[in-house]
Protein backbone atom coordinates (compact mmCIF):
# COMPACT_ATOMS: atom_id res chain seq x y z
CA UNK A 1 0.00 0.00 0.00
CA UNK A 2 2.16 2.85 -1.20
CA UNK A 3 -0.21 5.45 0.09
CA UNK A 4 0.16 4.39 3.66
CA UNK A 5 2.56 6.26 5.81
CA UNK A 6 4.53 4.84 8.67
CA UNK A 7 6.16 2.10 6.66
CA UNK A 8 9.40 1.46 8.47
CA UNK A 9 12.69 0.86 6.73
CA UNK A 10 12.99 -2.42 8.62
CA UNK A 11 9.70 -3.70 7.33
CA UNK A 12 10.63 -2.66 3.81
CA UNK A 13 13.80 -4.74 4.06
CA UNK A 14 11.90 -7.66 5.53
CA UNK A 15 9.37 -7.43 2.78
CA UNK A 16 12.03 -7.24 0.11
CA UNK A 17 13.66 -10.37 1.49
CA UNK A 18 10.31 -12.10 1.56
CA UNK A 19 9.60 -11.06 -1.99
CA UNK A 20 12.99 -12.32 -3.15
CA UNK A 21 12.32 -15.64 -1.48
CA UNK A 22 9.16 -15.86 -3.49
CA UNK A 23 6.78 -15.89 -0.58
CA UNK A 24 5.18 -13.56 1.85
CA UNK A 25 6.13 -13.10 5.43
CA UNK A 26 3.07 -11.07 6.19
CA UNK A 27 3.16 -10.21 9.83
CA UNK A 28 2.48 -7.08 11.78
CA UNK A 29 4.44 -4.24 10.25
CA UNK A 30 5.76 -6.21 7.33
CA UNK A 31 4.49 -4.50 4.23
CA UNK A 32 5.09 -6.45 1.09
CA UNK A 33 4.86 -3.76 -1.52
CA UNK A 34 8.06 -2.35 -2.89
CA UNK A 35 7.92 -1.35 -6.51
CA UNK A 36 4.22 -1.88 -7.04
CA UNK A 37 1.30 -1.14 -4.76
CA UNK A 38 0.69 -4.80 -4.18
CA UNK A 39 -0.14 -6.31 -0.87
CA UNK A 40 -1.38 -9.83 -0.44
CA UNK A 41 -4.98 -9.61 0.55
CA UNK A 42 -7.00 -12.69 1.34
CA UNK A 43 -9.65 -11.89 -1.18
CA UNK A 44 -10.54 -15.40 -2.20
CA UNK A 45 -13.25 -15.99 0.30
CA UNK A 46 -14.23 -19.44 -0.81
CA UNK A 47 -10.73 -20.69 -1.32
CA UNK A 48 -9.88 -19.73 2.20
CA UNK A 49 -12.27 -22.45 3.28
CA UNK A 50 -9.79 -24.82 1.74
CA UNK A 51 -9.54 -26.06 -1.79
CA UNK A 52 -12.20 -28.65 -1.00
CA UNK A 53 -14.93 -25.95 -0.75
CA UNK A 54 -16.06 -27.46 2.55
CA UNK A 55 -15.01 -27.04 6.18
CA UNK A 56 -11.90 -28.77 7.48
CA UNK A 57 -13.95 -31.45 9.21
CA UNK A 58 -15.84 -32.21 6.05
CA UNK A 59 -12.64 -32.22 3.99
CA UNK A 60 -11.23 -34.99 6.17
CA UNK A 61 -14.46 -36.89 5.77
CA UNK A 62 -14.33 -36.53 1.99
CA UNK A 63 -11.23 -38.71 1.94
CA UNK A 64 -12.83 -41.43 4.05
CA UNK A 65 -16.05 -41.07 2.07
CA UNK A 66 -14.25 -41.60 -1.25
CA UNK A 67 -12.49 -44.69 0.09
CA UNK A 68 -15.73 -46.14 1.42
CA UNK A 69 -17.52 -45.50 -1.87
CA UNK A 70 -14.84 -47.23 -3.91
CA UNK A 71 -14.73 -50.18 -1.52
CA UNK A 72 -18.48 -50.55 -1.88
CA UNK A 73 -18.19 -50.30 -5.64
CA UNK A 74 -15.66 -53.16 -5.67
CA UNK A 75 -18.09 -55.29 -3.67
CA UNK A 76 -20.98 -54.37 -5.93
CA UNK A 77 -18.95 -55.36 -8.98
CA UNK A 78 -18.16 -58.72 -7.45
CA UNK A 79 -21.83 -59.16 -6.50
CA UNK A 80 -20.98 -59.32 -2.81
CA UNK A 81 -22.63 -56.06 -1.71
CA UNK A 82 -25.88 -56.81 0.08
CA UNK A 83 -28.31 -53.88 0.01
CA UNK A 84 -31.13 -53.95 2.51
CA UNK A 85 -34.18 -52.24 1.01
CA UNK A 86 -35.84 -49.34 2.78
CA UNK A 87 -38.79 -50.38 4.90
CA UNK A 88 -42.19 -49.78 3.35
CA UNK A 89 -43.96 -47.60 5.87
CA UNK A 90 -47.62 -46.89 5.91
CA UNK A 91 -46.94 -43.19 5.61
CA UNK A 92 -44.86 -43.71 2.52
CA UNK A 93 -47.76 -45.23 0.64
CA UNK A 94 -50.83 -43.53 2.02
CA UNK A 95 -49.80 -40.01 2.97
CA UNK A 96 -51.95 -37.42 1.26
CA UNK A 97 -50.04 -35.28 -1.19
CA UNK A 98 -49.93 -31.55 -0.94
CA UNK A 99 -51.28 -29.55 -3.85
CA UNK A 100 -48.72 -29.17 -6.63
CA UNK A 101 -46.38 -26.28 -5.98
CA UNK A 102 -47.39 -23.25 -8.06
CA UNK A 103 -45.06 -21.81 -10.66
CA UNK A 104 -41.63 -23.28 -11.22
CA UNK A 105 -40.71 -25.57 -8.37
CA UNK A 106 -37.90 -27.94 -7.55
CA UNK A 107 -37.77 -30.91 -5.22
CA UNK A 108 -34.33 -31.63 -3.79
CA UNK A 109 -33.86 -35.03 -2.15
CA UNK A 110 -30.76 -35.94 -0.18
CA UNK A 111 -29.21 -38.69 1.88
CA UNK A 112 -28.75 -38.41 5.62
CA UNK A 113 -27.66 -41.83 6.86
CA UNK A 114 -24.34 -43.61 7.05
CA UNK A 115 -21.08 -42.38 8.58
CA UNK A 116 -20.92 -39.34 6.25
CA UNK A 117 -24.63 -38.74 6.08
CA UNK A 118 -24.33 -35.05 6.94
CA UNK A 119 -22.55 -34.41 3.64
CA UNK A 120 -25.93 -34.98 2.00
CA UNK A 121 -27.35 -31.86 3.58
CA UNK A 122 -24.35 -29.79 2.47
CA UNK A 123 -24.82 -30.92 -1.13
CA UNK A 124 -28.57 -30.45 -0.92
CA UNK A 125 -28.01 -26.83 0.11
CA UNK A 126 -25.78 -26.37 -2.93
CA UNK A 127 -28.49 -27.74 -5.22
CA UNK A 128 -31.29 -25.88 -3.43
CA UNK A 129 -29.42 -22.59 -3.74
CA UNK A 130 -28.96 -23.02 -7.48
CA UNK A 131 -32.55 -24.19 -7.93
CA UNK A 132 -33.53 -21.03 -6.05
CA UNK A 133 -32.66 -19.12 -9.22
CA UNK A 134 -35.69 -20.60 -10.93
CA UNK A 135 -38.51 -20.67 -8.40
CA UNK A 136 -39.51 -22.31 -5.15
CA UNK A 137 -37.46 -25.14 -3.71
CA UNK A 138 -38.51 -27.94 -1.38
CA UNK A 139 -35.72 -29.97 0.21
CA UNK A 140 -36.24 -33.27 2.01
CA UNK A 141 -34.26 -36.27 3.15
CA UNK A 142 -34.93 -38.87 0.49
CA UNK A 143 -36.24 -41.17 3.23
CA UNK A 144 -39.18 -38.76 3.59
CA UNK A 145 -40.21 -39.21 -0.03
CA UNK A 146 -43.79 -40.35 -0.48
CA UNK A 147 -45.50 -41.72 -3.55
CA UNK A 148 -46.41 -39.18 -6.19
CA UNK A 149 -44.17 -36.32 -5.07
CA UNK A 150 -42.24 -36.25 -8.32
CA UNK A 151 -45.46 -35.17 -10.03
CA UNK A 152 -45.87 -32.24 -7.64
CA UNK A 153 -42.79 -30.35 -8.85
CA UNK A 154 -41.46 -29.01 -12.11
CA UNK A 155 -38.28 -31.03 -11.64
CA UNK A 156 -36.62 -33.23 -9.02
CA UNK A 157 -32.96 -33.59 -8.11
CA UNK A 158 -31.67 -36.47 -6.00
CA UNK A 159 -28.10 -36.38 -4.68
CA UNK A 160 -26.72 -39.85 -3.97
CA UNK A 161 -24.01 -39.21 -1.41
CA UNK A 162 -24.54 -42.22 0.85
CA UNK A 163 -23.63 -45.46 -0.88
CA UNK A 164 -26.25 -47.81 0.46
CA UNK A 165 -25.16 -51.36 1.19
CA UNK A 166 -23.61 -53.52 3.86
CA UNK A 167 -24.35 -52.07 7.27
CA UNK A 168 -26.08 -49.02 5.79
CA UNK A 169 -29.56 -50.02 4.62
CA UNK A 170 -31.11 -48.30 1.63
CA UNK A 171 -32.99 -45.22 2.83
CA UNK A 172 -34.62 -44.54 -0.54
CA UNK A 173 -38.26 -45.61 -0.53
CA UNK A 174 -39.19 -47.95 -3.38
CA UNK A 175 -41.87 -45.39 -4.23
CA UNK A 176 -39.17 -42.95 -5.37
CA UNK A 177 -37.53 -45.50 -7.64
CA UNK A 178 -40.90 -46.43 -9.10
CA UNK A 179 -42.06 -42.83 -9.54
CA UNK A 180 -38.91 -41.79 -11.38
CA UNK A 181 -39.34 -44.73 -13.72
CA UNK A 182 -43.05 -44.05 -14.29
CA UNK A 183 -42.87 -40.27 -14.58
CA UNK A 184 -42.24 -38.02 -17.54
CA UNK A 185 -41.18 -35.19 -15.23
CA UNK A 186 -37.48 -34.36 -15.36
CA UNK A 187 -35.40 -36.02 -12.66
CA UNK A 188 -31.69 -35.39 -12.21
CA UNK A 189 -29.81 -38.10 -10.35
CA UNK A 190 -26.36 -37.31 -9.05
CA UNK A 191 -23.90 -39.98 -7.93
CA UNK A 192 -24.73 -43.15 -6.05
CA UNK A 193 -27.59 -45.65 -5.89
CA UNK A 194 -28.93 -45.39 -9.44
CA UNK A 195 -28.20 -49.16 -9.62
CA UNK A 196 -30.70 -49.70 -6.81
CA UNK A 197 -33.34 -47.96 -8.88
CA UNK A 198 -32.64 -50.34 -11.77
CA UNK A 199 -32.75 -53.33 -9.45
CA UNK A 200 -36.02 -52.15 -7.92
CA UNK A 201 -37.91 -51.35 -11.13
CA UNK A 202 -36.29 -54.24 -12.97
CA UNK A 203 -33.14 -54.00 -15.05
CA UNK A 204 -34.90 -54.72 -18.38
CA UNK A 205 -37.50 -52.03 -17.66
CA UNK A 206 -34.79 -49.52 -16.79
CA UNK A 207 -32.81 -50.42 -19.90
CA UNK A 208 -35.87 -50.13 -22.12
CA UNK A 209 -36.64 -46.64 -20.87
CA UNK A 210 -33.15 -45.24 -20.39
CA UNK A 211 -30.81 -47.23 -22.63
CA UNK A 212 -28.09 -47.93 -20.09
CA UNK A 213 -27.42 -50.37 -17.27
CA UNK A 214 -26.46 -48.81 -13.93
CA UNK A 215 -25.99 -52.25 -12.37
CA UNK A 216 -23.04 -52.72 -14.70
CA UNK A 217 -21.64 -49.18 -14.30
CA UNK A 218 -18.74 -48.42 -11.92
CA UNK A 219 -16.54 -45.58 -10.72
CA UNK A 220 -13.27 -47.37 -11.38
CA UNK A 221 -11.80 -48.67 -14.60
CA UNK A 222 -9.03 -51.24 -14.21
CA UNK A 223 -9.10 -50.74 -10.45
CA UNK A 224 -8.60 -46.97 -10.56
CA UNK A 225 -10.64 -43.79 -10.72
CA UNK A 226 -7.91 -42.52 -13.02
CA UNK A 227 -7.09 -38.84 -13.23
CA UNK A 228 -10.15 -37.17 -14.68
CA UNK A 229 -9.10 -33.54 -14.74
CA UNK A 230 -11.21 -32.10 -17.53
CA UNK A 231 -14.88 -32.03 -18.41
CA UNK A 232 -15.98 -30.76 -21.81
CA UNK A 233 -19.39 -29.15 -22.11
CA UNK A 234 -20.78 -27.00 -24.91
CA UNK A 235 -17.26 -26.83 -26.33
CA UNK A 236 -15.89 -25.30 -23.11
CA UNK A 237 -13.06 -27.09 -21.32
CA UNK A 238 -13.83 -27.16 -17.61
CA UNK A 239 -11.37 -28.17 -14.94
CA UNK A 240 -11.65 -30.89 -12.33
CA UNK A 241 -8.94 -30.78 -9.67
CA UNK A 242 -9.37 -33.35 -6.93
CA UNK A 243 -6.33 -34.43 -4.92
CA UNK A 244 -5.25 -38.05 -5.04
CA UNK A 245 -7.06 -40.01 -2.37
CA UNK A 246 -10.02 -37.63 -2.27
CA UNK A 247 -11.42 -38.54 -5.67
CA UNK A 248 -14.43 -40.83 -5.51
CA UNK A 249 -14.41 -41.01 -9.29
CA UNK A 250 -17.00 -40.40 -12.00
CA UNK A 251 -19.42 -43.21 -12.79
CA UNK A 252 -18.78 -44.79 -16.17
CA UNK A 253 -22.27 -45.59 -17.46
CA UNK A 254 -22.69 -48.85 -19.36
CA UNK A 255 -24.59 -47.51 -22.36
CA UNK A 256 -26.50 -50.05 -24.43
CA UNK A 257 -26.24 -49.72 -28.17
CA UNK A 258 -28.30 -52.61 -29.44
CA UNK A 259 -31.53 -52.26 -31.37
CA UNK A 260 -34.55 -51.25 -29.36
CA UNK A 261 -32.78 -49.18 -26.77
CA UNK A 262 -33.49 -45.45 -26.62
CA UNK A 263 -30.69 -43.09 -27.48
CA UNK A 264 -28.60 -41.83 -24.59
CA UNK A 265 -27.42 -38.26 -25.03
CA UNK A 266 -23.98 -37.47 -23.66
CA UNK A 267 -24.31 -33.99 -22.14
CA UNK A 268 -20.74 -33.58 -20.95
CA UNK A 269 -17.59 -35.62 -21.43
CA UNK A 270 -14.86 -36.42 -18.90
CA UNK A 271 -11.24 -36.86 -19.96
CA UNK A 272 -8.70 -38.93 -18.02
CA UNK A 273 -5.32 -37.21 -18.10
CA UNK A 274 -3.52 -40.52 -17.56
CA UNK A 275 -4.44 -42.01 -20.91
CA UNK A 276 -6.66 -39.52 -22.70
CA UNK A 277 -9.66 -41.83 -22.35
CA UNK A 278 -13.02 -40.13 -22.48
CA UNK A 279 -16.26 -41.14 -20.83
CA UNK A 280 -19.59 -39.48 -20.16
CA UNK A 281 -19.72 -37.04 -17.24
CA UNK A 282 -23.46 -36.50 -17.58
CA UNK A 283 -26.04 -38.26 -19.74
CA UNK A 284 -29.73 -37.92 -20.49
CA UNK A 285 -32.37 -40.32 -21.72
CA UNK A 286 -36.11 -40.18 -21.22
CA UNK A 287 -36.90 -38.06 -18.18
CA UNK A 288 -33.63 -38.96 -16.45
CA UNK A 289 -30.49 -36.84 -16.36
CA UNK A 290 -27.64 -38.67 -14.69
CA UNK A 291 -24.56 -36.81 -13.41
CA UNK A 292 -21.63 -39.11 -12.65
CA UNK A 293 -20.31 -37.30 -9.59
CA UNK A 294 -21.33 -34.77 -6.96
CA UNK A 295 -19.70 -31.62 -8.34
CA UNK A 296 -19.79 -29.29 -5.33
CA UNK A 297 -16.37 -29.95 -3.80
CA UNK A 298 -12.97 -28.84 -5.08
CA UNK A 299 -14.71 -26.13 -7.04
CA UNK A 300 -12.93 -23.30 -8.81
CA UNK A 301 -13.98 -20.45 -11.10
CA UNK A 302 -13.54 -22.66 -14.18
CA UNK A 303 -14.85 -25.85 -12.67
CA UNK A 304 -17.07 -28.67 -13.95
CA UNK A 305 -19.80 -27.53 -11.55
CA UNK A 306 -20.65 -25.08 -14.34
CA UNK A 307 -22.14 -28.01 -16.28
CA UNK A 308 -24.62 -28.71 -13.51
CA UNK A 309 -25.41 -25.01 -13.12
CA UNK A 310 -26.45 -24.91 -16.78
CA UNK A 311 -28.20 -28.30 -16.87
CA UNK A 312 -30.70 -27.03 -14.29
CA UNK A 313 -32.19 -24.79 -16.99
CA UNK A 314 -33.24 -27.86 -18.99
CA UNK A 315 -35.55 -29.07 -16.24
CA UNK A 316 -36.63 -25.80 -14.64
CA UNK A 317 -36.58 -23.16 -17.39
CA UNK A 318 -36.09 -24.80 -20.77
CA UNK A 319 -37.30 -21.75 -22.70
CA UNK A 320 -34.51 -19.55 -21.37
CA UNK A 321 -32.81 -17.52 -24.08
CA UNK A 322 -29.06 -17.21 -24.31
CA UNK A 323 -27.85 -14.11 -22.44
CA UNK A 324 -24.41 -13.23 -21.05
CA UNK A 325 -23.97 -10.34 -18.66
CA UNK A 326 -21.00 -9.11 -16.67
CA UNK A 327 -20.57 -7.14 -13.49
CA UNK A 328 -17.63 -5.44 -11.81
CA UNK A 329 -17.37 -3.96 -8.36
CA UNK A 330 -14.60 -1.95 -6.74
CA UNK A 331 -13.67 -3.54 -3.44
CA UNK A 332 -12.43 -2.58 0.01
CA UNK A 333 -12.98 1.15 -0.30
CA UNK A 334 -12.54 2.70 3.15
CA UNK A 335 -12.08 6.14 4.71
CA UNK A 336 -8.34 5.63 4.13
CA UNK A 337 -8.71 5.03 0.38
CA UNK A 338 -7.02 7.42 -2.01
CA UNK A 339 -9.71 9.75 -3.41
CA UNK A 340 -7.68 10.36 -6.56
CA UNK A 341 -7.53 6.66 -7.31
CA UNK A 342 -11.26 6.37 -6.75
CA UNK A 343 -11.93 9.18 -9.21
CA UNK A 344 -9.61 7.58 -11.77
CA UNK A 345 -11.59 4.36 -11.57
CA UNK A 346 -14.88 6.25 -11.83
CA UNK A 347 -13.71 8.19 -14.88
CA UNK A 348 -12.64 5.03 -16.66
CA UNK A 349 -15.82 3.04 -15.92
CA UNK A 350 -18.12 5.99 -16.57
CA UNK A 351 -16.33 6.57 -19.87
CA UNK A 352 -17.06 2.95 -20.73
CA UNK A 353 -20.75 3.49 -19.82
CA UNK A 354 -20.47 0.73 -17.21
CA UNK A 355 -22.67 0.67 -14.13
CA UNK A 356 -20.56 -0.79 -11.33
CA UNK A 357 -20.61 -1.48 -7.62
CA UNK A 358 -18.51 0.29 -5.00
CA UNK A 359 -18.05 -1.79 -1.89
CA UNK A 360 -17.43 0.55 1.00
CA UNK A 361 -16.23 -0.18 4.54
CA UNK A 362 -17.56 2.80 6.50
CA UNK A 363 -15.07 2.73 9.38
CA UNK A 364 -11.33 2.18 9.04
CA UNK A 365 -9.50 0.99 12.09
CA UNK A 366 -5.97 -0.11 12.87
CA UNK A 367 -6.20 -0.87 16.58
CA UNK A 368 -2.57 -1.86 16.98
CA UNK A 369 -1.13 0.86 14.79
CA UNK A 370 0.33 -1.70 12.41
CA UNK A 371 0.39 0.86 9.59
CA UNK A 372 0.67 3.89 11.89
CA UNK A 373 3.94 3.60 13.81
CA UNK A 374 2.36 1.56 16.56
CA UNK A 375 -0.30 4.15 17.28
CA UNK A 376 -3.92 3.06 17.09
CA UNK A 377 -5.93 4.80 14.39
CA UNK A 378 -9.63 4.87 13.58
CA UNK A 379 -11.23 6.96 10.83
CA UNK A 380 -14.90 6.99 9.93
CA UNK A 381 -16.32 8.15 6.61
CA UNK A 382 -17.55 11.34 8.26
CA UNK A 383 -13.94 12.07 9.19
CA UNK A 384 -12.79 11.59 5.59
CA UNK A 385 -14.57 14.30 3.58
CA UNK A 386 -12.37 13.91 0.53
CA UNK A 387 -13.19 10.21 0.32
CA UNK A 388 -16.88 10.98 0.78
CA UNK A 389 -16.63 13.57 -1.96
CA UNK A 390 -15.00 10.98 -4.24
CA UNK A 391 -17.73 8.48 -3.38
CA UNK A 392 -20.41 11.02 -4.28
CA UNK A 393 -18.58 11.68 -7.52
CA UNK A 394 -18.62 7.95 -8.23
CA UNK A 395 -22.32 7.70 -7.38
CA UNK A 396 -23.05 10.40 -9.95
CA UNK A 397 -20.87 8.56 -12.48
CA UNK A 398 -22.33 5.08 -12.70
CA UNK A 399 -21.59 3.64 -9.25
CA UNK A 400 -24.02 1.77 -6.99
CA UNK A 401 -23.22 1.98 -3.28
CA UNK A 402 -22.67 -1.32 -1.48
CA UNK A 403 -21.81 -2.05 2.14
CA UNK A 404 -18.76 -4.21 2.82
CA UNK A 405 -18.90 -4.81 6.57
CA UNK A 406 -18.57 -2.33 9.41
CA UNK A 407 -14.79 -2.42 9.99
CA UNK A 408 -13.68 -5.47 7.93
CA UNK A 409 -11.52 -6.63 10.83
CA UNK A 410 -12.13 -8.22 14.22
CA UNK A 411 -11.42 -6.78 17.67
CA UNK A 412 -7.75 -5.88 18.18
CA UNK A 413 -6.24 -9.18 17.12
CA UNK A 414 -4.72 -10.61 13.97
CA UNK A 415 -7.59 -12.33 12.18
CA UNK A 416 -5.57 -13.63 10.48
CA UNK A 417 -3.15 -10.90 9.40
CA UNK A 418 -2.99 -7.52 11.07
CA UNK A 419 -6.23 -6.55 12.80
CA UNK A 420 -6.51 -3.75 10.23
CA UNK A 421 -9.55 -2.85 8.14
CA UNK A 422 -9.52 -4.59 4.78
CA UNK A 423 -6.96 -7.17 5.81
CA UNK A 424 -8.94 -9.30 8.20
CA UNK A 425 -12.16 -11.23 8.66
CA UNK A 426 -14.90 -9.45 10.58
CA UNK A 427 -17.54 -12.12 11.20
CA UNK A 428 -15.37 -15.26 11.30
CA UNK A 429 -12.14 -16.26 13.02
CA UNK A 430 -9.15 -17.47 11.00
CA UNK A 431 -5.44 -18.05 11.32
CA UNK A 432 -2.56 -18.84 8.99
CA UNK A 433 -1.03 -22.25 9.62
CA UNK A 434 2.59 -23.37 9.37
CA UNK A 435 2.05 -24.31 5.72
CA UNK A 436 0.82 -20.78 4.92
CA UNK A 437 -2.80 -21.79 4.51
CA UNK A 438 -5.60 -19.63 5.85
CA UNK A 439 -7.52 -21.86 8.24
CA UNK A 440 -11.10 -21.00 9.17
CA UNK A 441 -11.70 -21.34 12.91
CA UNK A 442 -15.45 -20.70 12.99
CA UNK A 443 -17.58 -17.81 14.20
CA UNK A 444 -16.24 -15.60 17.03
CA UNK A 445 -17.27 -16.64 20.52
CA UNK A 446 -19.63 -13.67 20.85
CA UNK A 447 -21.28 -14.30 17.49
CA UNK A 448 -25.05 -13.94 17.65
CA UNK A 449 -27.93 -12.29 15.88
CA UNK A 450 -27.67 -9.33 18.25
CA UNK A 451 -23.91 -8.96 17.73
CA UNK A 452 -24.18 -9.06 13.94
CA UNK A 453 -27.12 -6.64 13.97
CA UNK A 454 -25.19 -4.18 16.11
CA UNK A 455 -22.36 -4.12 13.58
CA UNK A 456 -24.78 -3.68 10.70
CA UNK A 457 -26.57 -0.88 12.55
CA UNK A 458 -23.24 0.84 13.22
CA UNK A 459 -22.22 0.48 9.59
CA UNK A 460 -25.46 2.01 8.29
CA UNK A 461 -25.20 4.84 10.82
CA UNK A 462 -21.71 5.64 9.56
CA UNK A 463 -22.99 6.03 6.01
CA UNK A 464 -25.76 8.32 7.23
CA UNK A 465 -23.34 10.37 9.31
CA UNK A 466 -21.25 10.96 6.20
CA UNK A 467 -24.27 12.15 4.21
CA UNK A 468 -24.26 9.12 1.96
CA UNK A 469 -27.34 7.17 0.91
CA UNK A 470 -28.25 3.94 2.64
CA UNK A 471 -26.67 1.01 0.82
CA UNK A 472 -29.10 -1.78 -0.05
CA UNK A 473 -26.53 -4.40 -1.03
CA UNK A 474 -24.14 -6.21 1.29
CA UNK A 475 -20.90 -8.12 0.83
CA UNK A 476 -19.52 -9.96 3.88
CA UNK A 477 -15.82 -9.23 4.51
CA UNK A 478 -13.75 -12.14 3.18
CA UNK A 479 -17.01 -13.92 2.39
CA UNK A 480 -17.34 -15.62 5.76
CA UNK A 481 -19.97 -15.42 8.48
CA UNK A 482 -22.20 -17.66 10.54
CA UNK A 483 -25.69 -18.79 9.55
CA UNK A 484 -27.13 -16.35 12.10
CA UNK A 485 -25.09 -13.49 10.62
CA UNK A 486 -26.21 -14.24 7.08
CA UNK A 487 -29.82 -14.06 8.18
CA UNK A 488 -29.16 -10.66 9.79
CA UNK A 489 -27.61 -9.37 6.56
CA UNK A 490 -30.62 -10.69 4.66
CA UNK A 491 -32.95 -8.73 6.91
CA UNK A 492 -31.06 -5.45 6.47
CA UNK A 493 -30.27 -5.46 2.75
CA UNK A 494 -32.21 -6.35 -0.37
CA UNK A 495 -29.49 -8.77 -1.45
CA UNK A 496 -26.03 -10.04 -0.67
CA UNK A 497 -23.50 -10.03 -3.50
CA UNK A 498 -20.90 -12.62 -2.61
CA UNK A 499 -19.83 -16.19 -2.07
CA UNK A 500 -21.26 -17.75 1.07
CA UNK A 501 -20.90 -20.49 3.62
CA UNK A 502 -23.84 -22.84 4.20
CA UNK A 503 -23.98 -24.69 7.50
CA UNK A 504 -25.31 -28.13 8.36
CA UNK A 505 -28.60 -27.84 10.21
CA UNK A 506 -30.00 -25.18 7.88
CA UNK A 507 -32.24 -27.63 5.99
CA UNK A 508 -32.69 -30.29 8.61
CA UNK A 509 -33.81 -27.89 11.32
CA UNK A 510 -31.20 -29.36 13.65
CA UNK A 511 -28.97 -26.98 15.61
CA UNK A 512 -26.50 -25.32 13.23
CA UNK A 513 -23.16 -27.10 13.23
CA UNK A 514 -20.55 -24.34 12.85
CA UNK A 515 -17.87 -26.90 11.95
CA UNK A 516 -19.74 -28.42 9.04
CA UNK A 517 -20.33 -26.18 6.07
CA UNK A 518 -19.97 -25.87 2.33
CA UNK A 519 -18.83 -22.78 0.46
CA UNK A 520 -20.53 -21.88 -2.77
CA UNK A 521 -20.64 -19.23 -5.43
CA UNK A 522 -23.13 -18.71 -8.21
CA UNK A 523 -23.17 -17.84 -11.91
CA UNK A 524 -26.60 -16.23 -11.55
CA UNK A 525 -28.75 -14.67 -8.85
CA UNK A 526 -30.34 -17.15 -6.46
CA UNK A 527 -32.68 -17.20 -3.50
CA UNK A 528 -30.55 -19.17 -1.09
CA UNK A 529 -31.40 -21.53 1.77
CA UNK A 530 -31.12 -18.60 4.21
CA UNK A 531 -34.01 -17.02 2.32
CA UNK A 532 -31.88 -14.20 0.89
CA UNK A 533 -31.30 -13.08 -2.66
CA UNK A 534 -27.62 -13.62 -3.43
CA UNK A 535 -26.15 -11.93 -6.47
CA UNK A 536 -23.34 -13.69 -8.30
CA UNK A 537 -19.59 -13.40 -7.84
CA UNK A 538 -18.03 -16.23 -9.79
CA UNK A 539 -14.88 -14.91 -11.44
CA UNK A 540 -12.83 -13.74 -8.45
CA UNK A 541 -10.47 -10.80 -8.61
CA UNK A 542 -7.21 -9.48 -9.94
CA UNK A 543 -4.30 -10.52 -7.71
CA UNK A 544 -0.92 -9.77 -9.27
CA UNK A 545 1.04 -11.92 -6.82
CA UNK A 546 0.44 -15.29 -5.18
CA UNK A 547 -0.25 -15.48 -1.46
CA UNK A 548 -1.28 -18.10 1.07
CA UNK A 549 -0.84 -20.83 -1.56
CA UNK A 550 -3.27 -19.10 -3.89
CA UNK A 551 -1.75 -18.42 -7.30
CA UNK A 552 -1.67 -14.95 -8.80
CA UNK A 553 -4.79 -14.15 -10.77
CA UNK A 554 -4.21 -11.97 -13.79
CA UNK A 555 -6.60 -10.43 -16.32
CA UNK A 556 -6.09 -13.43 -18.61
CA UNK A 557 -7.21 -15.75 -15.79
CA UNK A 558 -10.34 -13.73 -15.12
CA UNK A 559 -11.14 -13.64 -18.83
CA UNK A 560 -10.57 -17.41 -19.13
CA UNK A 561 -13.04 -18.03 -16.31
CA UNK A 562 -15.54 -15.71 -17.97
CA UNK A 563 -15.10 -17.66 -21.19
CA UNK A 564 -15.94 -21.06 -19.70
CA UNK A 565 -18.92 -19.50 -17.93
CA UNK A 566 -20.37 -18.85 -21.38
CA UNK A 567 -21.56 -22.45 -20.99
CA UNK A 568 -24.22 -21.11 -18.62
CA UNK A 569 -26.95 -20.08 -21.04
CA UNK A 570 -28.12 -17.11 -18.94
CA UNK A 571 -25.08 -16.55 -16.76
CA UNK A 572 -23.06 -13.71 -15.37
CA UNK A 573 -19.33 -13.06 -15.24
CA UNK A 574 -18.99 -11.13 -11.98
CA UNK A 575 -15.63 -10.04 -10.62
CA UNK A 576 -14.14 -7.43 -8.32
CA UNK A 577 -11.18 -5.11 -8.40
CA UNK A 578 -9.18 -3.21 -5.83
CA UNK A 579 -8.95 0.46 -6.78
CA UNK A 580 -5.47 0.74 -5.25
CA UNK A 581 -4.17 -1.14 -8.29
CA UNK A 582 -3.48 0.62 -11.52
CA UNK A 583 -6.43 1.01 -13.87
CA UNK A 584 -4.71 -0.84 -16.74
CA UNK A 585 -5.40 -4.42 -15.55
CA UNK A 586 -9.04 -3.44 -15.02
CA UNK A 587 -9.20 -2.14 -18.57
CA UNK A 588 -7.68 -5.37 -19.89
CA UNK A 589 -10.18 -7.43 -17.95
CA UNK A 590 -13.19 -5.39 -19.05
CA UNK A 591 -12.06 -5.43 -22.67
CA UNK A 592 -11.46 -9.18 -22.58
CA UNK A 593 -14.80 -9.99 -21.01
CA UNK A 594 -16.63 -7.73 -23.44
CA UNK A 595 -14.85 -9.37 -26.36
CA UNK A 596 -16.40 -12.68 -25.26
CA UNK A 597 -19.85 -11.20 -25.82
CA UNK A 598 -20.73 -10.15 -22.29
CA UNK A 599 -22.64 -6.93 -21.58
CA UNK A 600 -21.85 -5.09 -18.34
CA UNK A 601 -24.83 -4.34 -16.12
CA UNK A 602 -25.40 -2.90 -12.65
CA UNK A 603 -25.84 -5.01 -9.55
CA UNK A 604 -29.59 -4.58 -9.28
CA UNK A 605 -29.95 -5.80 -12.88
CA UNK A 606 -28.45 -9.14 -11.83
CA UNK A 607 -31.67 -10.22 -10.15
CA UNK A 608 -33.68 -9.90 -13.36
ZN1 LIG B 1 -12.88 -7.03 1.49
Automatic annotation (TrEMBL):
Pfam families: DUF2334. CDD domains: CE4_COG5298 (cd10923). Residues 1-30 form the signal peptide. Keywords: Signal. It comes from the Bacteria. This is Uncharacterized protein YdaL.
